[in-house]
Amino acid sequence: MMSKLQTIQFTSAHLPNGTPSEEHPLTNPGELLLCRHAADNTFTNPNFLLIHAHKNPFDDYQAPMFAMLTASSDDTVRPSADPLKKTFWMKTYSENKGILEQLEAQNILKRTGEKVNQGYVTLIGVETVLQRGQWSETCHGCGRLEQLDSVKPRMMRCGKCKDRYYCNKECQAAGWPAHKEDCKRICRVLAL
């Protein structure tokens, strides 16, 4: 049985405080979810982002994504000793400044102690404190992101590698050609 999605209370200096309205569809505090995104299907540096926990009732065009957390690097973050947790390089500068501290305070992410310099910036190695099932997933067939107010049930995972998620059997069949080789590689890495 899949765990319940863990929400994150988030404040931003760029948003007003108060109840959302047509004039201010995004306000503090915001309710977000940690989401593993399907882009690039990277197993050793998975793509995590913050998404809005609910669809915005005041803005049909509001994308679910709030912030991309993962930064690309040729260096690999040391994997977690816990197979239900993930590690990745996090971007903590520019628009992400202050996000890691809020996520650490709410026991969502923790630093691994690893850092890598890339040009003028330093990427921080982080590990999820949340376990698989407590963060939102992305369907590897259609690209849908899990949000709390969705009428669809939680996603199903690949029966072989147990690392890719799908809305339903149709999405799994649609995503299989792209996932087939990746599935074999993940099974080898995890010795499944």
TrEMBL record:
Pfam families: zf-MYND. Coiled coil: none annotated. One of its GO terms (molecular function) is zinc ion binding. This is MYND-type domain-containing protein. InterPro entries: Znf_MYND. SUPFAM superfamilies: HIT/MYND zinc finger-like. The keyword Zinc-finger applies. Signal peptide: none annotated. Residues 139-183 form the MYND-type domain. Keywords: Metal-binding, Zinc, Zinc-finger.
